[in-house]
Fold each of these.
Amino acid sequence: MAKLSTEELLDAFKELTLIELSEFVKKFEETFEVTAAAPVAVAAPAAGGAGAAAEEVEEKDSFDVVLEAAGDKKIQVIKEVRALTSLGLGEAKALVDGVPSTVLEGANKETAEKAKAQLEEAGATVNLK
């Protein structure tokens, strides 16, 4: 079997659905006896008190892009969600159908604002949290 380049491997992974990729990671972990734990953005529980919340807003460097409504051009919004994430068509449609839903978690300010602009251009209503 010919050795695949990194680019060829990445192209192959881009074609997989999240479920297929998850199954691959499990097989990879079993085969090589490793843990492929990806960094996952976890929503931190809200700190108590309004003062703490105000401090968090000032220092915030990661944002969640939350789709509030798909608008008239639902298909365009689904296309944008797919472009912004690694979701397949079915997962992206489910995310858009299940509004409000988080499109990106823990994105930096520039990425979050760019994603918001792309989704709004497609006709969606979006909030950054």
Amino acid sequence: MGRMVLGLFLGLILSSVGLYWWQGRAQVEEKAPPPPEVEEALSPEDLPITDPADMTGPQPPEASELTREQIRFFRYDRNRDLTITRNEMLSTRSDGFRKLDVDGNNLLTFEEWAVTTAERFDGADSDGDGRLTPQEFATTAPKRVAKPKCRC
């Protein structure tokens, strides 16, 4: 007997929820805006005739001037969330690390660093006197990559 009353009670609850849901949808559809009017499609032969001399186009967008520090910041901020994570900071250094890691074990020893640095120094010291002049030191600067020209 208890199960029968419980089943009847649950049936009434489900039917009232269904009725409430159905009435709610009917009210929303009742207040919905009318459907947009469909414009008649023009045939390709009916092109508009106009004089372009009196027309003006939109203004071109202006490029924002970034400071050198902002450009440097965005070089590290890969996902442009205005914060630099540790991984973003270290990701730009991974190619340099791989060049220094001669044996490829992902461990940079002092010897690997010292040998690479000494070879770089010897390559820059053109007269072999063990000292770098300002002109010789300028050759150790990173090479600037030329930006491709726009083919507009």
